[in-house]
Amino acid sequence: MKGTTATVVSQPGTRSQVAKAAFKPPKRDDPKGGTLGRPIQLAANHFAVTIKPGAKIFHYDIAISPAKSKTMDRKVIEQFLRSRPDIVRCTPVFDGKKNVYTARRIEGLNSQITVEYQFQEQDRSERKDTNFSISLQPTGELEIDLAVLEAYCKAGSSTNVPLRPIQALDIALKSTASTSKIVIGSSLMSKDMGQPFDLGGGVEAWFGHFQSLRLGWKPFMIIDASQRAFVKGGAVHDMFAQECGFRSAQELRDWRLFNEVNFGKKIATLKVEYPRGGYMASVGCNGIKGAANKEVFECDGKKVTVQQYFEQKYGKKLKFPDLPCLWVGSREKKNLVPMEICTIREGQEYRRKLNDIQTSNMIKVAAKPADERREKIMKAVNSMNFAADPCARDYGISVDNKMVRVIGRVLPAPTLIYGEKENDRCSPRDGSWNMVNKRFVDAKCMMEWGVINITRDANDFQIEEFAKAIFKAGTGMGMAISKYKFIKHIDSRDLKREMEACKKEFPNLQILFVIINKKGDPTYEVVKSVGDLQLRLTTQCVQSRNVRGKNGPDMQTMSNICMKLNAKLGGVNNLIDRSVRPEILLKEQVIIMGADVTHPGADQQDSGKPSIAAVVGSVDPRAFRYCAEIRVQKSKQEYIEDMEDMVYQVLLKFNKIAGTTSTGKPQRIVFFRDGVSEGQFQKVMDWEISAIRKACMKLSAEYDPPITYLVVQKRHHTRLFAEDQRDKIGRGLNVPPGTVVDTLITHPVENDFFLVSHYGIQGTSRPTHYHLLWDDSNMSSNELQKLTYYLCYMFSRCTRSVSYPAPCYYAHLVAYRGRQYYDELTKMNSRVTNSELQRSVDGCRDLQFMFFV
After folding, report:
1. For the chain, which terminus, N or C, has the lower number of CB atoms within 10 Å?
2. pLDDT tens sequence across 533-545
3. CATH of the domain spanning 581-716+766-848
4. Which long-range contacts (CB under 8 A, 24 or more apart) does 577-581 make?
5. Residues 94-141: pLDDT tens digits?
6. Which fold has domain 234-345?
7. Distant-in-sequence, close-in-space partners of 224: CB < 8 Å, separation ≥ 6
8. Domain 416-568, CATH homologous superfamily name and number
């Protein structure tokens, strides 16, 4: 058995008898990495870090009283640290919360000291409290020995990463730059890195870089180009005017027709400034209230409006007295300020969800070709100038200014089969292939179908041409397609009623096409909720532009639609040729599983919405068809609470479907777990691997299949760049699909690898990171990487390899659809049970085999 558990009880020799398991990831059997594929010379955005022998960091706790705003507290503490010569000589750095790190021990500070400190800066907006009590004391573990980092790089475990020294160095190596850059998490943003880009709606993109220490075969600093959304600085009333559809406040007319609630939410929590006597007050904004000429409060025993107060007290003649006031300062008080005298302080992150236009603009500005991204990264490295950084010097750290070179490999693409004829086989090139003259492995019939058009763009002739194109593409791939039953043109407001009428008139309707305006059309949600939840009817949305086309419907697009249709009807589109199929899929019957958890968005975290967990599993030996289980669980909880029952139900479905042609139970389980960060490895392993084992025992006491469990990570900042011009492909000049790296920048002793499995169409390709956390099958690196890569060619929706394995993609899509179902069901019932949610999935043909539009 590969991997170890701390406690094994009861029947020795069985994997299932695990109690209070402390699972540990297996060691890499081949320390030099895999051998499959051709070599490729690469550069990675990892910069080697050298640590001076004997280097240590000292860790102190600091507290301030009375606590003010986060910004104010930071100013006071940093000014205090700079005012003490005994502390300054130790090169202190502050993390903005409660931690102070120093390069040397502060002499004489062996226990807590509390000092009275007078803040020197004339920040008059908070001038009532300029005297503070500051407490500084050593932590329980004062010394942080940096030697543990290099020790980890020889034999460390991913379940026990030395976080304290990593966090301390991350803070220290950002400290000098933080005086001229805006630090947001691990990113440092500055106008020096590029002119801000207007995203629309008073929001702009600022540029900078991501920076974080990571441990591979040696310590590395990862540096990557980064961009963040910031609120535009400037007059608040001009922003308000733009929200109302005008260029400036001078053009503002009849703003009361505008929904003020959205603007109030947008500006809430931002810092605004306004003149107050002889200084500029800087305060937090809570939202907006009524007009300045209407809002009344008591001043010196008289009732006055906000307009009258500011005109009499400060001589401010208002140009727009009927505009709303800003509610600022303490939420316990009703401090109102006329909007037109307020400005938004520059350099504030925009923390609300971007709208569709802003998101599209952000993607455009972020998606840079690999060579251009590399230049941005090197510009960021040069701007940091680590060689001259006093903090880096005093903390005994040096950072190389060149990207690390690493030898990767390009794995061979699989041969794909469609039909039984020789020309139905194809070898993908650069991660893609075409469907010309290819027939599906198992083509289905589409005899009962119709079209509803809710747009004004497509007419009868164009829809007729679209239907002919679908017929031509589908029959060419082996599907039997009859003429449509109906074409209906309706108003989008009548969509629900019309869908119900169509189902009633045609009870055997297999597919209902709905022509919508564009991607992201809100009508899509209506189509899916009515079709999936109410009518149990399979639907296919098509954008009007794909119906019209410049010269009629595009046949490649029609082929892609037919791939979705055949899969939704229960067919099999393509398979991996048996001659190249990974060994594990040939020897025994294997179930391939995927799991993911989606959490409420940043703007919904306080809404009480739960997280949605999804588990999918293949139900045929060829790993094309999948079934799904879905559950509601505690918000933001990453481990899947009901994993045992979800896996058990998937195994039952496998037995029901695959058991008719096989032994019934899969002989091995390969599990791809999406979205788990390193800090959660131990908890997720302990809970979920035990749960998978218990699910097997629940099926049968003697059932004890080997389990292979990998974590799939997409949210990281590693990027790979081809060194040889001949290896760069496409407009993005990216590395080719199949590029894998499993040395130097990976874990020193455990089995993990970076894999670029897709063709980078836009921007710089992001490799997916895979980490093997458990393996009873003792798979070699070559086997594991080949299986993972080939599963990226098994996604039913397109003729391209995708960026991570099909089961992960399906689990993600199921969880996303589950979120939509949950939202719809809660409109009818305040509390939605897991059984209700699962019934929605089981009753939906779209979800039975994981095929989505």
Report:
1. N
2. 889 899 999 999 9
3. 3.30.420.10
4. 577/414, 577/415, 577/416, 577/417, 577/425, 579/415, 580/412, 580/414, 580/415, 580/790, 581/414, 581/790
5. 999 999 999 999 998 888 888 887 776 654 444 555 788 999 999 999
6. paz domain (2.170.260)
7. 45, 209, 210, 377, 717, 719
8. Response regulator (3.40.50.2300)
